[in-house]
Design goal:
Oligomer: single chain
Helix content: 25-40%
Largest sheet: 6 strands, parallel
Radius of gyration: 20 Å
Strand order of the largest sheet: 3-2-1-6-7-8
CATH class of the largest domain: Alpha Beta
Strand content: 15-25%
Low-confidence stretches: none
Order of helices and strands: HEHHHHHHEHEEEHEHEHEH
Shape: globular
CATH architecture of the largest domain: 3-Layer(aba) Sandwich
CATH superfamily of the largest domain: HAD superfamily/HAD-like
Distance between the termini: 28 Å
Number of helices: 12
Mean pLDDT: 93
Number of strands: 8
Length: 303
């Protein structure tokens, strides 16, 4: 492989595995060259909080300014106060669904506008850069290399599909319909006889983690990927699914082990309980583990 390819990847076992996979896929029919990437913690940072949660918190603050009575709800009060114990007691899914209620009744177009406004002005609380600057440069290089080899690349996230679709094209070069994620429910409404969709307070189906990712991949993409990349227990089934295909396949697991340049932590799923540390699963399954500390010379892309 050209030495200019994957410039932010050091010479390491994970890079060797990627290069071997790419070489092996020369014989794979183009229509079978499908790669899926988790988003949070795989393509961009997920600490100190999920980006979508930061968006919801900002939206909540603005909603409380308009209607102070909202701040009396226990879960909203905990969010505004930053009460970590109370937030942990609520749990991520109930908390996110409670926050989603502030968008109930608005159209998809209005939701998109609010997300665009957020990304146009908000900054990462620790790094002080726009959220575009929390993307992982080595993963962007891998996506570019896959595309140069006629791969179709998709984002399969546990986050809200509508949220990620707003930035998927500009951040990753993935068209909005190439994002598979948790789906909010919609209902048909009419204004002056004209039909429109409005958001509800319920999810359409289960949160898109664990086994739900596999069902979503089949429902939306209609075919099995031969490369899957993730970082938490919520990605285990997706990585297993990619590895179970005939022919060349690759499962990549990002290990957040760089406390100096990013964060050092054990990745966990936001919506399900893990049977054990995901790194042990990777070892048993023979997946390729990416060490942020050792394998990446550069972590973040330019904002």
């Amino acid at each position: 492989m050209d030495t200019s390819t994957l410039p932010s990847w050091r010479r390491c076992a994970s890079r060797d595995a990627i290069e071997a996979f790419l070489e092996a896929t020369r014989t794979v029919p183009v229509e079978q060259r499908v790669a899926v990437f988790d988003n949070d913690g795989t393509l961009w940072g997920e600490k100190p909080r999920y980006t979508q949660l930061d968006f919801f918190v900002r939206e909540l603050k603005q909603a409380v300014e308009r209607d102070p009575a909202l701040g009396d709800r226990p879960e909203y009060r905990a969010v505004l106060a930053g009460d970590k114990d109370a937030l942990a007691a609520f749990g991520l899914v109930p908390l996110v669904m409670a926050l989603a209620q502030i968008h109930s009744g608005i159209t998809p177009e209005e939701f998109t506008r609010r997300v665009q406004d957020f990304f146009a002005s908000a900054e990462h609380p620790d790094r002080g850069v726009p959220y575009r600057g929390t993307r992982y440069q080595p993963m962007l290089e891998l996506i570019d290399e896959l595309r140069s080899r006629q791969f179709q690349v998709f984002v399969v996230t546990g986050g809200g599909a509508e949220f990620v679709r707003v930035i998927s094209r500009s951040f990753y070069g993935v068209r909005p319909e190439g994002v598979v994620g948790s789906q909010i429910g919609y209902e048909l409404d009419r204004v002056d006889g004209e039909p429109r969709l409005v958001r509800t307070t319920e999810l359409s189906g289960d949160p898109n983690e664990g086994p739900a990712k596999i069902a979503s991949i089949q429902r939306v993409l209609g075919q099995r990927p031969i490369l899957a990349a993730g970082n938490s227990a919520g990605d285990i089934e997706m990585l297993e699914y990619a590895m179970a295909t005939d022919g060349p396949s690759l499962a990549l697991l990002v290990d957040h082990d760089d406390a100096e340049r990013e964060y050092e932590y054990e990745s966990v799923a936001g919506t399900l309980d893990a049977a054990g540390p995901v790194l042990k699963v990777a070892d048993r399954q023979g997946w390729t583990v990416i060490s942020m500390r050792d394998d990446w010379s550069t972590i973040f892309a330019d904002a």
